[in-house]
Write a structure and sequence with these properties.
This protein has about 160 residues and is of the alpha+beta class. It has helices spanning about 15-30, 40-50, 100-110, 125-135, 150-160, and strands at about 5-10, 55-60, 60-75, 80-90, 120. Helix 1 (about 15-30) crosses helix 2 (about 40-50).
């Protein structure tokens, strides 16, 4: 059978599908206990507040992968760029070029929106993804360290201003 792969933007009706992709990605990254997203929070953040966008890859109409991305801003460039939060293809559909097509689609969006960069993070143990990204021409930015503040520490920090 001839496989047909298409990429489309997600709609609000896809909220449950997006949550399923997120949960599958979390299992892959050994972080399933960290998922607190709900169908309602996805609908609100993605489709009502438009805080991020999602594309969905489909093989013969069957959803097999997704990418969630949003605009960030480079003060040095003086313009917005794209940040890829997640790119995930179900394991049984990997090695068919779908991840490459989705990354290419995101690059096209970046170019069309006059962005100069497409950035993302990758877990340091995820060798298959690192090798995939490097094959696509991506470079690791080893001079940067990622920081995060959340939960009680975020609330504590928010109360420091007089």
């Amino acid at each position: 059978m001839n496989q047909q792969f298409k990429i489309r933007f997600a709609h609000e009706d896809d909220a449950e599908l997006i949550l399923n992709f997120i949960k599958s990605l979390a299992v892959y990254e050994k972080m399933e206990n960290d998922v607190v997203a709900t169908i309602e929070s996805i609908k609100d953040s993605l489709f009502h507040k438009k805080q991020a966008e999602v594309i969905i890859g489909e093989e013969n109409g069957q959803p097999v992968g997704f990418a969630l991305f949003y605009h960030n801003y480079s003060t040095f460039l003086g313009k917005a760029n794209l940040f890829l939060e997640d790119l995930f293809v179900y394991e049984s559909y990997r090695n068919k070029g779908y991840g490459k097509q989705m990354l290419s689609y995101l690059a096209k969006i970046a170019v069309e929106r006059n962005c100069d960069r497409l950035d993302w993070w990758c877990l340091d143990w995820n060798t298959p993804s690192i090798e995939f990204y490097e094959k696509m021409g991506a470079k690791q930015l080893n001079q940067w360290t990622v920081f995060r503040i959340q939960g009680k520490n975020l609330a504590k920090l928010s109360n420091l201003n007089p």
